[in-house]
Amino acid sequence: MEVLKNSEKRWLRYDFSAPEIHDLSMDLANKTQQFQTVSDEKKSVSSQFKSKLDSIQSDLNSLSNKVASGYEIREVECEVKYHKPEQGKKTIIRKDNNQKIIEKMTSEEWNLFNQEQEETA
Fold it and tell me: What torsion, rounded to 10 degrees, do the Cα atoms 16, 18, 20, 25 define?
């Protein structure tokens, strides 16, 4: 014959007391703050890394364009000789490589330099 136990364990509803609710509420508030703090840190760090990555991507695009095209537009110091090689034209001489470019003078340039200038030797 089997002997019956006087006690057993069961999963049943348990209603929290007021002090327990208070303690749980404090834990909930603290965890919520902790979550928000870590979430804000993550956003800040992500934003910093995104900014760094965007800067690097911009440099990559610029370098890629330079390599693909083989040139870039730069500001170059030039000497301008008006009415050379002939009246109404100007010769532009690059100071970095002495390359000569001949262009037609603009109307503004023509008005300013309307007389052929003699070179002084």
Answer: 110
DSSP 15: P
Those residues whose C-beta lies under 8 Å from the C-beta of residue 105, and which sit 6 or more positions away, are: 82, 83, 88, 89, 90, 113
| Encoded tokens for 30 | 């603290």
Q: Of 64, 56, 103, which Cα lies nearest the Cα of 83?
A: 103
Q: Could you read off the pLDDT of 83-109 as tens digits, one per residue?
A: 999 988 999 999 999 999 999 999 888
Per-residue tokens: 115? 């007389």
Which sequence spans correspond to the domains of the chain? 18-71, 78-112
Number of H helices, E strands in the chain: 2, 3
What one-character DSSP code corresponds to residue 74?
-
pTM of the model: 0.52
Tally the C-alpha atoms within 13 A of residue 113's C-alpha that lie toward its C-beta: 17
